[in-house]
Structure formats: structure tokens, C-alpha cells
């Protein structure tokens, strides 16, 4: 072959790229002198123009990282009832939830039988003895779960515990040899703009690797009461559920769980991962007890508007930012907050030294504190900053402000639904104006009385019998009163703009969560 047609070798490509890069760097340096003068003038006349001091860097190479972490990333196959699969995402691959977005990117259906379907998601091994982390919605309702390792080995898996509130589940597999595993990192240390790698099983294509950057932290997408997601732009799709999100040091900083997809199709570059700090807490509890307990403070809090901030005499934040915090609207009788002296009108600004920006932020942080733990609250009262010591209680069994009880484990009949307050975000997602009153059904337990009666996630319960309801606690109280008097509960529901009545005959569900818990009831 003549020299004229010799293929370009890899080293020559590398040199070519280096030459181009050198030219770019040189060009930048030439422009830098002029920019330097502009910066000096900007600082001199104090215009406030931001001129970032940046450095040109080559794109990272993830080859070695992927080779080392892939053996710990697994494919999860769950045998589900066909109706359970329909609850999570239709067999045609389209989400069936009334919420158009975001939605969990559920596992990829492989085949449909008369009564069951086989579906796949992702997960990762966190210990040599076989503990595997994945999403709750990957194994919810599963009658059989298997884990396939990177080398093709298939192992039966046991569900150790599930936590629907954070969409996490812990599995256990047994192997003849020690399994290779990966560690959970510190999600509090990641920053927007940082490179991350997602590994998973999208559409059944095992071992798929994609990369992107952290777009934002602390995202509340209205999917659950403790949302605090990492937003990433790494391409992730259905079947990535439960897969790990890595930083460049090979640590897991998130569990991929949802994407924003207005059309119901694939990724558009907006994905969400559960932070590893949340995963550590939940997984530790699931391993020990099979369930999760959460802290309880006993306040209903609301967002601070500029008008409220002015009336309360709150100081502006750094660089003129609006005042932050959670305005206490009410305090539950006998609650930890009441015992600590917290009153309506106080603005909670910190918990154990961590800043509180919003009521949701307070809910997330309180829930992560172990019951029985002493904590320090920072708050503002009458324009003065104060602190109080509080002993966090257990959310299960705690009385809500209206006196109802939110114990998820109590016996007796229950409907099998989880409820959420009708927030402004949910109103927007459901297309409801401010005149609509009621509570939103956020989840329906598979096989429950509510599911059998035709209750759907996204339904708005407006009345129990002839009694209007406007919050989860009042709804639970009304349902319990109806159960004492009758065999069935009559619900007036708003669905797709139409009012309908649904009669529910409750039974004792096996795993259902009939929730009187409000997002704002910390």
C-alpha cells in the first residue's frame, strides 16, 4: 500500500488533536491580554460585570473508570403481575400515570404472559456478601426477582426491604464467591458542572454507559414527600431505573430513578438521581429492620413570600437574596416542636447547623434524623434569631395537627392509597386552578381495595361521603369514621375534569400505605 493511502494511526490522531488544542490555547492566550485589560477596567469602574477566569481542559476519559466499576453493576429481572406492570408503565412503553412528567423510567418489558410479565431494571452491589441497591418501582409487586451479574451469572434475589417514599429497595443474593462491589460516595460534595457517568440496562441493553454533567442539586419534582434529587444531563432511559451514577473517583453519588419526558418517550437530557447520602440512610435501615423510620417534628410550615418576609421583619440573604426558611403555620399538640417552645409565626432557618431554605427542605432534613435524637433548631421570632433544643420523635404514630394518626403499620381495614396535599406544583401538573379543593392520590397499592375500586394515582379526592376534605389528615379521619359506620367508603373524586363517585370496600392490605401524612407535616 502506498504511503499516500496509509491509514492514520492512533498516535498521529493524538498528535493532530494536540496540535489543534495548542492552536486553541495560543489563540486564547492572545485574546487573554485584551480581556485582561477589560477586566481591569471593569473592576476599576465597578460595573459588576462577571468575567470568569477559566482554564481550557481536555474532556475526561472514562475507559478505566468503567472497566473497574462495571462488574458491580447488575441487571435485575422482576416477574410481575400484568396489572402491576400497567400501574408503573404500560406495555407499549408509555407511562400510564396521569402526571405527564416527570416519571420513573421503568424497566423494559421482555414478554407478556397471561397473568405475569417479565421486566428488567438496573442495580448495583454494595457489599461482598451480596446486598444490591435498586429502585422500589423496579421490584414493586414482583413475585420473583433475579439478578444478572456483568459476567452473565444469574442469581435469585430476595427483597430485604422497600421504601416507597424514596423509591429505594434493597435486595440480597447469595454467591459461592465474594462479589465485587462499589462504595457510596458523598453526594453533598458534588457540584453543578461536575462530570458523572451512568451505567445501567436501558431497554434491556445491559452494561450501557453514558456520561454528562450534574445540572443541579436538591430538585423537588413532586414525585414524593422527600424529593431532593440530583439533576443530570447524562442520557438515561427506561431500564436505567436503579442504576448507579458515578463521579470520576468511582464512587456512587446517586441512584438513577426518573427522567423529564413531556412526550412520554426517551431522554431529553434531564434526568434525576437519588442522592447517595439519602441512599446510605435508607439502605442501612432496610438492612437492619426491613423498613424505614423517619424523624418527626410536628409543625405545618409554608413558603415565605416577599410580603410575608417584610411583615415578619426578616433580613435579606447574601447579595440581596430573598429571606429563606420555613414559616410555621401550626404546631401539633404534644409534638417535639411544641415541647421545644416553637410557635406559629416562627421562621425555622436551620436544623443542626444546616440551612433551611423551604418547608420541603425542612421536611427532608427532619425525616433523615433518627427518632430519639436531640437536634438544634435555629429560628427567627420577632426579628430576633434564636435556637432551641428538640428531641426528634418517630413519624409513625405521630399525631398530625388535626389529631389524625399517620401510623402506617396499624391493623384494621385500609384503602391502600397514599395521599398528598394539593400543592401549586400538583395543580399545575394536573391542570387545576386555585378553586379546586381536595387531596391528591399519589400512589395506589397493587391489589388493594382502592385499586380494585378503580382509584388511580392523580385522582383528587374532594369528599368522603358528604364531608368535604382538603388535607390528608382530614381525609384519613373521615375515612376511619366512615369505616366504623359502614362496610364501604363513598369517595367523590375529580378525574380529568369530571366529578365521579367511587365506592371502596376496604380489606386488610398486605403492604398498603394508607397515608395521613402531609408533605408539610414535619
TrEMBL record:
Residues 312-366, 408-497 form the PDZ domain. SUPFAM superfamilies: PDZ domain-like, Trypsin-like serine proteases. One of its GO terms (biological process) is proteolysis. Keywords: Hydrolase, Periplasm, Protease, Repeat, Serine protease, Signal, Stress response. GO terms for molecular function: serine-type endopeptidase activity. Substrate binds at residues 137, 167, 239-241. It holds the Pfam family PDZ_2. InterPro entries: PDZ (IPR001478), PDZ_sf (IPR036034), Pept_S1C_Do (IPR011782), Peptidase_S1_PA (IPR009003), Peptidase_S1C (IPR001940). Its EC number is 3.4.21.107. PROSITE patterns: PDZ. It is found in: Periplasm. The active site is at residues 137, 167, 241. It comes from the Bacteria. It catalyses: Acts on substrates that are at least partially unfolded. The cleavage site P1 residue is normally between a pair of hydrophobic residues, such as Val-|-Val. SMART domains: PDZ. Belongs to the peptidase S1C family. NCBIfam families: degP_htrA_DO (TIGR02037). This is Probable periplasmic serine endoprotease DegP-like.
